[in-house]
Amino acid sequence: MVIDEKENSAMTIIARLRTAGFTAVLAGGCVRDRILGVTPKDYDIATDARPETVQGLFDNTVAVGARFGVIMVILGDYHFEVATFRADAEYLDGRRPSSVRFGTIEEDVQRRDFTIGGMYFDPATERIIDLVGGMRDLRAGLVRAIGDVYQRFEEDHLRMLRALRFAARLDFAIDPATYAAIKRSAPSIAHTSAERIGEEMVMMMTEGGAARGIDLLVESGLAEVVMPELLALPSCPQPENFHPEGDVYRHTRLMLSMLPRGCTETLAFGTLLHDIAKPRCFAVAADGKMTYYGHTDQGAEMAAEMMRRMRRSRFVQDRVAYLVRDHLRLCMAPRMRTATLKRMITEDGFDELMQLAMVDALASSSDLGFLHFCRRALADLRAVKAPPPRLIGGHDLIALGFKPGPEFKEILREIEDLHLDGAISTRDEALAFVRENYTPAPDAGTA
């Protein structure tokens, strides 16, 4: 296996601990990922050195959880959690133990969540230390809780969502006993903070396997607490001529299956929620036609609220709402006036809107003509080095006798539209248009 720079830094920390006479190994998810041939995002280190000893051995440390035996060691641009082997006391808040007792590696592994993340790697001997059957479950493609599964989920309710995420990302099955415990314990996820749920949902939606992750979320009962709005999607039908794939849930799931691993959270949630208001807006007209009038506007409001509920940033809230509200607008692009089209394709977020529109089309009628039209228009616009300068401004309107106010914006926007459309091209033409089509208020004076 090729060792990257970050892993080299982790090995430096382990070597220094070993030189000082302590045991030190890689622990948790990074061991699993190395076995699978995936470059880990983080490298966690476990040791029998006490927190104060770890701090004394390294120049740059942060006591992120010294009470629980965790010290952050900083080497260059990288941060590593170095945790002392420990046994946990009772968990009282559904997240952290009330106290810890430093102990052995055998005790340390019993407090971890899943067998595939409960292995250690000793770089000195290049030996995997597997005390819980992690390799067995990794070969079998199984997510299994360590020890008493109900106790593991009671210790940290978020582990239920993590089990789903691992199963989705790795395309693993969930051990029947573990899955039964998730279903039974699902309501307790409500005791987990919204921020932690939000972070876990982002990873589930962007690390790969989002479609299966949402299936598991619904089937396990966790969606009833985390995203109850999803539960109405399977019962919302769609017309076969536009949606041969079936109901709104099937359509959404198919779109999610097309998302690339590592996509942005805004695209992922925009995809998941693009039709979230269809059940609320569904109606059948007298001629039998199915309608969903207003589902884009209502969906944007629902999506923004759901993102707020998960404590995502204001940027994420606004961008997801934009994607949901405007996901059908590209279909009208070939019929738009030039100015309207140019405004749309220069909007912040339009690239993501095109990605959403593409998977939306591929998961339904597969008509991509409008998308090709938008791409050509975008390429043509980007070939122009700079947008055309404004022909007139507010000072020109004042000179014509207009008072600053709401009408300014209306006039200047119309002039800009005419300029973008090619109907006018000079300052004199712009001023002439204003004189011919607008009249200053009587008390505004004269130019």
- The overall pLDDT, averaged over residues, is 89
Could you tell me the radius of gyration in angstroms?
A: 29 Å
Query: Uncertain regions: pLDDT < 50 for 5+ in a row?
Result: none
Helix content: 40-55%
What class do helices, strands and sheet pairing give?
Answer: alpha+beta
How is the CATH topology of the largest domain named?
Answer: Beta Polymerase, domain 2
Find the CATH superfamily of the largest domain: Beta Polymerase, domain 2
Our count of domains comes out at 4
Any idea what the shape is? elongated
Instruction: Give the strand content.
Output: 5-15%
Name of the top-level CATH class of the largest domain:
Alpha Beta
User: Strand count, sense and closure of the main sheet?
Assistant: 7 strands, mixed
> What would you say the CATH architecture of the largest domain is?
2-Layer Sandwich
Terminal residue distance? 77 Å
| Count, helices | 22
Strand order, sheet with most strands: 3-4-5-2-1-8-9
What do you see in this structure?
By secondary structure, the chain is α+β, with helices and mostly antiparallel strands. The protein folds into four domains: 1-140, Beta Polymerase, domain 2; 145-226, Hydrophobic Seed Protein (Orthogonal Bundle); 325-383, no CATH class; 394-444, no CATH class. 49% of the residues lie in helices and 10% in strands.
